[in-house]
Amino acid sequence: MTDFTLTTDADGVATITWDVPGKSMNVMSLAGFAELNGLMDQALADAGVKGIILTSGKKDFAGGMDLNVIAKMKDDGGAQGIFDGVMMMHGVMRKIERAGMDAKTLKGGKPVVAALPGTALGIGLELPLSCHRIIAADNPKAKIGLPEIMVGIFPGAGGTTRLVRKLGAMIAAPFLLEGKLSDPKAAKLAGIVDEVVAPEDLLARAKEWILAAKDTDLVKPWDQKGYKMPGGAPYHPAGFMTFVGASAMVHGKTMGVYPAAKALLSAVYEGALVPFDTALKIEARWFTSVLMNPSSGAMIRSLFINKEALDKGAVRPEAPDQSVQKVGIIGAGMMGAGIAYVSANAGIEVVLIDAAQEAADKGKGYSEGLLDKGMQRKKVTAEKKAEVLARITATTDYAALAGCDLIVEAVFEDMAVKADVTRKVEEAVGPDCIFATNTSTLPISDLARASQRPDQFIGIHFFSPVDKMMLVEIIRGQQTGDRAVAKALDFVRQIRKTPIVVNDARFFYANRCIIPYINEGIRMVAEGVEPALIENAAKLVGMPLGPLQLVDETSIDLGVKIAKATRAAMGDAYPDGAVDKVLFAMADQGRLGKKANAGFYAYDAAGKRLGLWDGLAAAWPAAKAQPDLAEVQHRLLFAQVLEAVRALEDGVLMDIREGDVGAILGWGFAPWSGGPLSWLDMIGAPRAVEICDALAETHGARFAAPALLRDMSAKGQQFYTRFAPQPKAA
Ligand code: NAD
């Protein structure tokens, strides 16, 4: 396998081209690094070579490091293996940066230019940062940046140290701490790339720069005498302010639960106090420390490796390609309108039906609004807007559904209304059409009774807002066939979301776990636990929203509706009477949540959240003795993770990867943990059982350890060993 090739032209300009065989995007492997190193040596040693262009044979430069390699480095060599591997990379990049120049005079080096045709992410930008100039093609679709923080690590191949020294800590902060990506022009504006040229001029301009480069053009600011960090180093008054601010900002955003963000700041701060090569070593040590933290391993596993496996159809049954050509969406309300937008945006023809033409048009208008917003942000062109809207036919006429190969029903949450729609649709579509319902609470198998073809009937459960939420839950009813599952998965792939496939049961998977979280929060209000303690405990453990804010967002009347339906279904076994007292009292006072500008929180007239509503204390006075933080956190976390375990025990979840990925993407379950099952593996089944026993004793049977967890505890097992996903047969 050859990832890199070297050619030299008649003018003595060598081009090293990165083109990993058999992949649409270049990713860096350890073998690739060794190859690049060998070719760099060759070009630097060749007296006939005046300078080197590093570019790509593909439309993009590179997508980053192969994270499977990082995981393997850790498994094979532990901390030392990671550190040695990273220092090897630093060695290669430092060699490129020095390019054979004399160490004292800094003269005689060979210019190295990175010529980026398109996207350059992670190591795909760290490598160019070690070159003497970065020239990017003016390709508005290209993304340039360092997104490592998004999967729980940070740029550890010199990217952190070089970007901070190039831009200063303040300007580099969003790119490092938030993984902000830019198109080439924005990257030039920020100072990340040096030049943007027309795509057809990319290589010619790189060559021109090489041939004109002087010795001084090759010396990086940090290798020059008297270098000062832009914006000031930490001991400089301006720098001091930056670092104090950054530290507060990071803590505010991460609540201290993301080891990568803390380590990144430490690498930047400590690195700023020492010479460049020592800073690289510090960066490597912090990077190693992050990789050795179980959180980063779990995040890489769930957010990168397993998410990608699910996106690529890891759980797809064997069936011919089921890509959707024409989708019919029934119900143009909040969900239907969103589903129409994401479908049309993915190039699928859409028929959007509602009971009245006005409602159907309003649903289509939602797409227009989103596209207009995109145009304002210069992300969407007028042509693109026209194309997407032209794909959506808004009508009341079921005859327009002829030729649809998939239907997604999103009408009112009412069994009879849905049954009526199912019958009407089946009269209008061909016999192969798959029918999906977006119900959030009604059993798929029950809804399928209205269908002539229950094997072609399935649940495709979107989350709100559809255009933002990345998870789609696919629900197999008792009679759902494989082709329907394949169809749903192919559809989700087309609209670029992540699917999980679960079996039919009350609330499926995501809502099944999130409702007990909300309920536990409300139950604590009833018990007199300080609402601020509840909310902050949730946030301090990495939940994006506290349970009370969450119920305000999803609306309290929806909570009431779900509670009533659940009580009706469960009868005497219904466990949440204490919760309902609070919920119903709130609803009775018209405090229906964010949409009513009044809920557990107070809001101003413009809908801005002000703080917890002070009327809570009067209705549910704070108890004298407040529980400690850990106990509140355990209640909130175990309310969720025990449902995930039970879903696995019951066979609702069929693959633990889906349990973890679905939790993070579906309801933002503490992403640092890698998901509920990864978190249980992290603390270990014996400790989890111990916490369950204590919680069950004080708070009731809902915290009783499931038999599966007890069994795993007794056998010393972990979820990721006991339920290790089987690789798909090739
Ligand atoms: P909505 O009230 O905003 O929209 C429902 C639409 O269906 C309305 O425009 C209504 O006019 C139309 N409709 C009703 N009966 C019809 C019929 N017989 N023929 C054609 N159109 C009809 O509701 P929504 O929030 O979009 O929810 C729709 C479905 O999606 C429900 O089943 C709901 O449980 C589910 N869901 C909702 C959410 C959410 O967050 N709102 C999330 C996931 C799933």
From TrEMBL:
Pfam families according to UniProt: 3HCDH, 3HCDH_N, ECH_1
Pathway, per record: Lipid metabolism; fatty acid beta-oxidation
Catalytic reactions of this protein: a (3S)-3-hydroxyacyl-CoA + NAD(+) = a 3-oxoacyl-CoA + NADH + H(+)
Residue ranges occupied by any 3-hydroxyacyl-CoA dehydrogenase NAD binding domain in the UniProt entry: 326-504
Signal peptide region: none
Residue ranges of domain 3-hydroxyacyl-CoA dehydrogenase C-terminal in the record: 508-603
Keywords: Fatty acid metabolism, Lipid degradation, Lipid metabolism, Lyase, Multifunctional enzyme, NAD, Oxidoreductase
A GO molecular-function annotation: NAD+ binding
A biological process from GO: fatty acid beta-oxidation
Family, similarity comment: In the central section; belongs to the 3-hydroxyacyl-CoA dehydrogenase family.
Protein name: Enoyl-CoA hydratase/isomerase family protein
